[in-house]
Design brief:
With 127 residues, the protein is mainly β. Helix content is 14%, strand content 43%. It has two helices and five strands; from the N terminus they run E-E-E-E-H-H-E. It has helices at 70-75, 79-90; strands at residues 9-19, 22-36, 41-51, 57-69, 94-97. A five-stranded antiparallel β-sheet has the order 4-3-2-1-5. Strand 3 (41-51) and strand 4 (57-69) form a beta hairpin.
Length: 127
């Protein structure tokens, strides 16, 4: 299974996948190079994932291997090339980069001090 980070995953048009007795909508493609002989062949592992309502990766509903050779291998110079090549072979459409939701909640603005009335504390009279 690939390392789950936004750096190696892409958003795809939803694809219905039958997995474990029910249909699931895969929306994320992960691709990792598992072997490259540095001459004429590279192997890739792929996973198709679902996301939950919060946008987090939920289930791996399809996985497999692809082998790149020949002109495809010779043309491979970037990760985007490999992703587009894999998407073509898997009949997928990439729509963007996957970025996991920020788990940090937004900052809460400070509340006023309950002992403060908002004035300078002077009553205006003489001591």
């Amino acid at each position: 299974m690939p390392i789950l980070s936004g750096n190696n995953m892409k958003i795809i048009d939803p694809v219905s996948v039958w997995w474990n007795g029910s249909a699931h909508s895969a929306t994320v493609l992960a691709l990792t190079c598992s072997n490259d002989n540095l001459f004429n062949q590279a192997s890739f592992n792929y996973n198709l994932f679902t996301e939950n309502e919060g946008g987090y990766i939920q289930l791996s509903v399809a996985q497999g291997y692809l082998s790149m050779t020949g002109e495809d291998y010779e043309g491979w110079a970037t990760n985007d090339y490999a992703y587009n090549w894999a998407a073509t072979h898997l009949n997928l459409t990439i729509t963007g980069n996957y970025a996991p939701p920020d788990p940090t909640p937004p900052p809460v603005p400070p509340s006023p001090d309950p002992g403060s009335s908002g004035s300078s504390g002077s009553s205006g009279g003489t001591p």
